Automatic annotation (TrEMBL):
<protein>
    <recommendedName>
        <fullName>chorismate mutase</fullName>
        <ecNumber>5.4.99.5</ecNumber>
    </recommendedName>
</protein>
<dbReference type="InterPro" id="IPR036263">
    <property type="entry name" value="Chorismate_II_sf"/>
</dbReference>
<dbReference type="InterPro" id="IPR002701">
    <property type="entry name" value="CM_II_prokaryot"/>
</dbReference>
<dbReference type="GO" id="GO:0004106">
    <property type="term" value="F:chorismate mutase activity"/>
</dbReference>
<dbReference type="GO" id="GO:0046417">
    <property type="term" value="P:chorismate metabolic process"/>
</dbReference>
<feature type="domain" description="Chorismate mutase">
    <location>
        <begin position="5"/>
        <end position="96"/>
    </location>
</feature>
<dbReference type="InterPro" id="IPR051331">
    <property type="entry name" value="Chorismate_mutase-related"/>
</dbReference>
<dbReference type="Pfam" id="PF01817">
    <property type="entry name" value="CM_2"/>
</dbReference>
<dbReference type="InterPro" id="IPR010951">
    <property type="entry name" value="CM_bact"/>
</dbReference>
<keyword id="KW-0413">Isomerase</keyword>
<dbReference type="GO" id="GO:0009697">
    <property type="term" value="P:salicylic acid biosynthetic process"/>
</dbReference>
<dbReference type="InterPro" id="IPR036979">
    <property type="entry name" value="CM_dom_sf"/>
</dbReference>
Length: 98
């Protein structure tokens, strides 16, 4: 496809949907991190540890099951969730002054 070719309306429709989903993901992640920030502040005040390995494992198992039900690669979903969990723990450690 050359630079002068008219835009493909089917491709443009797909891309618009992808752009909308990406925007929703960013908004959901922002909200999730606002909530986990509050959790981190609470844990710091209550002198609770930043990480909760049993909760993390339960969440990973739950989301792997959801991924399988949704026909999404559970390995990918676990990597994605692990990335988020690691970032949350980093924020909680910072809130605890570690």
């Amino acid at each position: 496809m050359s630079d002068n070719a008219p835009p493909d309306p089917v491709l443009a429709g797909f891309r618009k949907s992808i752009d909308n989903i990406d925007a929703a993901l960013i908004h959901m992640l922002a909200e999730r991190f606002r909530i986990t920030q509050a959790v981190g502040e609470y844990k710091a005040r209550a002198t609770l540890p930043p990480a909760d390995p049993s909760r993390e494992q339960a969440q990973i198992a739950r989301l792997r099951n959801l991924a399988e039900e949704s026909e999404l690669d559970p390995e990918f979903s676990e990597k994605f969730l692990r990335f988020i969990i690691d970032e949350v723990i980093r924020h909680h450690e910072r809130a605890a002054g570690r």
